[in-house]
Every structure is written in structure tokens, then in C-alpha cells.
Amino acid sequence: MPEEDTTIRISREEKQSLDMARNAWEKQAGRRVTAGEFVRFLSEWYLREVGGESKGAKPKSTSGLIAVQQVKPAEPQSVSPGPQVFLVACTRCGGQIGWRSDLSSEGYCPYCGIYLRLRG
Length: 120
Fold this sequence. Notes:
This protein has helices at residues 12-29, 35-51, 64-70; strands at residues 85-89, 96-100, 106-108, 115-117. By secondary structure, the chain is an alpha+beta fold. The protein has two domains: 12-70; 85-117, no CATH class. The strands form two sheets. It has a two-stranded antiparallel sheet with strand order 1-2. Strands 3-4 form a two-stranded antiparallel ribbon. Strand 1 and strand 2 form a beta hairpin. The longest helix is centred in the N-terminal third of the chain and has 18 residues, at 12-29. The two termini are 24 Å apart.
């Protein structure tokens, strides 16, 4: 079963605003982050600072660059290794597939549906 598409579509103006905030955060933190990592920082900050309040309470007035500057970088986490995944290109459509070798060496392309068999 193919994984859910987690792509978020935003307008050009919203992307520029997000990029400006991310650049300000990177300058303050002294390291670069991906857009996805930055969105995770923002969502964690929001849930911690604003999202946990009751619906009747007023949210704190912190916003804009000040709010972004209060976001702390993510701490490294130790993660146990999972199953080995190989990046496979479909022979028909060229789609990139993350293939878990522990499940099977045969399956279908999630993009075009062609039957695939991995050869070692």
C-alpha cells in the first residue's frame, strides 16, 4: 500500500514569508535547516505555546520574527535501525521506489502499476 502524500501546497507569497522566517532562524541558530525541519519546529512551538491553551483564552501576542527566534533547534534523537530499504527506479515510468527488501523481491510500481521483480 503506497504511503500517504504529505506534500503541502502554499502560495508563492506564503513561501516567501516562510523562507524569510527560516533564514532569520538560521542566522540566529548558526546552522541550516530544511524547510520540512523548520515547519516541524514551528508546529512544535505552536502546540507548546498556543495550541495547549483553552479555546476561550487569548493566545499570546508573540508573532512574526520574534516567535521564530524563540524556536529552539531540534535535539538529536537516537533511533534504532529498521529494515534495509533500497532506492529502485521503475523500468516503465522511472519512478523512484523505496523498496524494503525484507518484505519481498517482487511487487508493483506504486506510480504506474507494472509488476516488478528485483534481481540481485
